[in-house]
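Input.
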Amino acid sequence: MARDLAIDLGTANTLVYMKGKGIVLNEPSVIAVNRKTGEVLATGHEAWNMIGRTPGYIVAVRPLRGGAITDFDITERMIRLLLQRVGVSRFTRPKVVICVPSAITEVERRAVTDATRRAGASDAQLIEQPMAAAIGAELPIDEPVGNMIIDIGGGTSETAVISLGGVVTLEAIRVGSFDIDAAIQTYVRREHGIAIGERTAEDIKIQIGTATPMPNERGAQVRGRDLVTGLPKNIMLTPEEVRFAIDEVVSQIVNSVTRCLSKVPPEMAQDFLQRGMYLVGGGGLLRGLAQRIEKETDVPVRMSPMPLEAVVLGAGHCVENYQVLRSMFMGARR
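Output.
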């Protein structure tokens, strides 16, 4: 008999939760395809290692951008392979709960559910990521208190206030950690005249990227291709340069949090001052981001114990109580 699943179909990573077992898969949302034959060569970590290192007829792509499906066929094939890897076959068709950004359109919601059903699910239900993240962070969302969650993913940043099982205010923008990577690539190309790939930009962000000045900062050596000579070239990049490069993107994220706070009913303001805001998502791991948000909002910011897994754990809780999901949350758009 099929075990029901929860899938956090993220722009950067895809996580799968199996009922009764917990998280059974956590891999990059990347698929490598042979353009000549249409054959899928790899998914997940193996495909991620191919980015920027393949012949022209082999493409390693992320089928989701900005939290939405950009290539329906490729996304369906990726979901089908993921389901096969966790033991789903044509004889075992599980119910699936899928986490989606609140910023996506009705058409994009339909694309997600259709892709999941075509991939082998008997039923596909949707839950918005801020709600799932709040459940995964173990916030008391069913109580009459303000629970504020900030979910910064690869393609979207969402800030929501949740009380009594519903969203009170929401601010969602299609800006995330991939935009930070792109800003680093643009800066290095413009200021140093070398081209670097998205994997290198991500490594720079992890090594020396900060949202606000931090103690004991140090530079990092960056290797890329000289735009003039076409030859490999090394440069030293400082944390100050990276901070300058990503400031516009970070400011957009912080401003979205501020806008969400400004829409909160006055009675809830004291809840945040006492309880703070909770930060989840891979983008929230950028050093100094929590401190910068706290400084600009005067509200304490706390990091969820499992920021990368909070969304899928929240959806997993709904899988364990599937009827609760159908009655409380969004449900599939038929």
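The chain has eleven helices and 18 strands.
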